[in-house]
Design goal:
Elements (H helix, E strand, L loop, with lengths): L2 H9 L3 H14 L4 H12 L4 H13 L3 H5 L3 E3 L2 E3 L1 H25 L3 H21 L11 H14 L5 H15 L1
Helix pairs in contact: 4-6, 4-7, 6-7, 6-8, 7-8, 7-9
Length: about 180
Amino acid sequence: MNRSEMIKFVRSLSVEEASQTLRLLLDENPDLMKKAYDCAVKVTATVDSEDVAHDVFSSLDDLDYDDLNGRAGRTRHGYVEPDQAAWDLFEEALNPFIDEIAKNHKRALPAVAKTYCIGIIKGLQMYEKGSCSELSDWLQDAPGEYIDTVVDEWKKGKPSDEDVAEVLNIVKGGLS
């Protein structure tokens, strides 16, 4: 097999196959660990707060009455109020982004955690100001309340006073 065919083959691997291949490669070549680590940091550190903001906004703005109707009303566990169902949907849409903050704290990448924090805050502010979502009427207080949740989650990583001031300034700027 020539180099071009090998490249095509490797690029055709599924995510799971590529992950297993990387593990095997590193197990068999421990001297490559530093290079793999450096590449992984480079890949995970290239996050942009504006991209995160737009992703957060889109995830929340895409919530609709079909989602709500699938959750609200009678269930086998009792009755779920529509406002509670809307909040549950909101939280579920937001949680993957908040999880990125904790993941980057564990990775010892505080700058990336901060970028996610800022992006989530901006996304919530965009949603609060400009959502066309069918559920936005049910969620009028949610963005403001969740900004506090996001900041609290980020602060678990013990950011510097300077970083906290920067993030709080963004929070205040969105409230104007």
